[in-house]
């Protein structure tokens, strides 16, 4: 039994991988579905790819996990801030753009909450030693 922090049985790097993959696939789908095929439809992919890579690197390099997960948290914060634009320009956006922004916000917040819980658990474990 591992003492590694998990959320619903998933480690934080694994959550980063899954969320990154979801964003990459969503961005590609949005690009294909959109009428104009604008590169901006792929913004979720541009945010998801680094999250996916950071998650993979974190699993493969446990000694760097602390730093890689902090970088992932910064990326998740940028996802939330970028997605929050939906609240300012809601009426001028297509349904696809609104969906993309909401996905960025939801996945970004979800990852940040899981990451904060993980950082807190790590600090409590260190203090208990």
What would your notes on this structure say?
This protein is mainly α and 129 residues long. It has one domain. Helix content is 72%, strand content 3%. The protein starts with 5 loop residues before the first strand and ends with a helix.
Mind sketching the topology for me?
Elements: E1 6-7, E2 10-11, H1 12-33, H2 43-60, H3 65-83, H4 95-128
Antiparallel strand pairs: 1-2
Helix pairs in contact: 1-2, 1-4, 2-3, 3-4
Strand order of the largest sheet: 1-2
Number of helical runs? Answer: 4
Task: State Rg.
Answer: 16 Å
Main beta-sheet strand count, sense and barrel state: 2 strands, antiparallel
As residue ranges, the low-confidence spans are none
Structural class: mainly alpha
Query: What is the mean pLDDT?
Result: 91
Question: What would the keywords be for this entry?
Answer:
4 helices; mainly alpha; single chain; 129 residues; 3% strand; elongated; two-stranded antiparallel sheet
What is the gist of this entry?
This protein is mainly α and 129 residues long.
């Amino acid at each position: 039994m591992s003492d590694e922090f998990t959320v619903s049985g998933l480690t934080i790097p694994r959550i980063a991988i899954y969320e990154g993959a979801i964003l990459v696939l969503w961005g590609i789908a949005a690009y294909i579905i959109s009428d104009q095929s604008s590169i901006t439809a792929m913004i979720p992919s541009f945010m998801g790819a680094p999250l996916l890579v950071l998650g993979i690197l974190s699993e493969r390099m446990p000694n760097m996990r602390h730093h890689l997960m902090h970088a992932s948290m910064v990326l998740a914060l940028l996802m939330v801030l970028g997605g929050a634009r939906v609240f300012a320009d809601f009426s001028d956006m297509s349904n696809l753009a609104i969906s993309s922004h909401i996905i960025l916000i939801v996945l970004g917040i979800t990852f940040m909450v899981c990451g904060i819980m993980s950082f807190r658990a790590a600090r409590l474990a260190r203090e208990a030693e």
